[in-house]
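Notes from the 1:1 (GR / supervisor)

We went over the backlog. Supervisor wanted to see one worked example end to end before approving the batch request, so GR pasted a single chain during the call. The sequence is below; no edits were made to it. Supervisor asked that the structure be written out right there so they could see what the output format looks like.
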Amino acid sequence: MEKERFTMLLLEPGEIFFEDYSVQMRAIEPLFPEQKEWVDGRLKLCSKSLVFVNKDFIQPLIKIQLKETISVEQYNSEDNIEGCNNMLNVQCKQYVEMLEKNVLAPYKFIHKNATFQFCFNYAKVENCLPQILQLLRAATLPTAEQNAMIMTIVHSRQSRVCFDTSWLEDLYETVVLEIQANKVLPLVVNPGRVLLTTSRLYFQPYNNMDQHPVLKIQLKDISSIIQRRFLLRQVGLEIKWQKQPDGKIEYLFLSLNNQSDRDELHKKLLDQSAVSLETVPQNQMTMRWQNGSLSNYDYLLYINSLADRTFHDLTQYPVIPWIIKDYISATLDLDNPDIYRDLSKPIGALEPTRLERLKERYLEMLEPKFLYGSHYSAPGFVLFYLVRKYPQYMLCLQNGRFDHPDRMFNRYYN
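Structure output shown during the call:
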């Protein structure tokens, strides 16, 4: 089976993918005289865009942002596929090409009026068109009002969906709780339904984005359940379990609608007899680190976890103390004090010249004054270091572009 090229990282951060349709597409002449044939693919309906995924991996994905769309209407004409009247006509001021030749690269923004036609193979245009027009109207509003209207649409769609109990593994499972939740990944929030039974925890996304229609976690495999913040609100819940039969450690970070829902799910998870958590008191973890049975790295990750930091959220990504200052030597003598930075000062005060400039700027400022203009950790800073490992995150955060080459991270010494 071919791997899906479309991911939610191709959308704006926080944008929601609703559903997709099997279609055939063509771009109308005279703008595209070379493309006369219909091409097979899938049309993705998202909260702020339409994305066409060409079946041919060589061809780029085409994203039509709704804010750049002139009109969306049902199209009837004799000049179509064997007289098919199940067609959608989309006119836009610009569109975006992504993943041409299946290569992750900066997106191409085509600033031209264009018209795309989509012939639906199975779905009916008259059923899809009202949803698209509703989102198109939202795209004409100011950002805050647009987001509010989208959330209203989302809540309306979600209220009509219940968990499909045919996915239950065991007929004798007893349902304990069903609740709406979001699966959180870096720069991605995917809404769905959480179902807790006496044996398992299930997550069923509202869309077909995930590889499996339903995520199933056996309660006996769960080793950790931690209440976390998400976007500065106490609505997060991170679950760690050991996947069987390979023993791989997996994580699920959920955000609930409010703290009450989060606390209810957390309590009912802990109430299940099948749940047996690995609990080690904080003083014992510190003692293990002091005795050398726990590495510096693992202990730092443990401390980060206590501070609500997780790899699943770039806004509260784990932080590691900046200790070493020698990034030139091939080997380091850890007993040599010269390799360590001055720990009596914050990073911003290590260079006297830079510190003096900051103080001068501080004295010239109006109230409220501040010395440092940025936080020590933010999504942009995190991706500055991770851009080579996760270039798709940078493209998502920077609207399809990499940062200027002069500002790219090359080595710690610089």
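Supervisor's comment: Residues 143-159 form the longest helix (17 residues).
Batch request approved.
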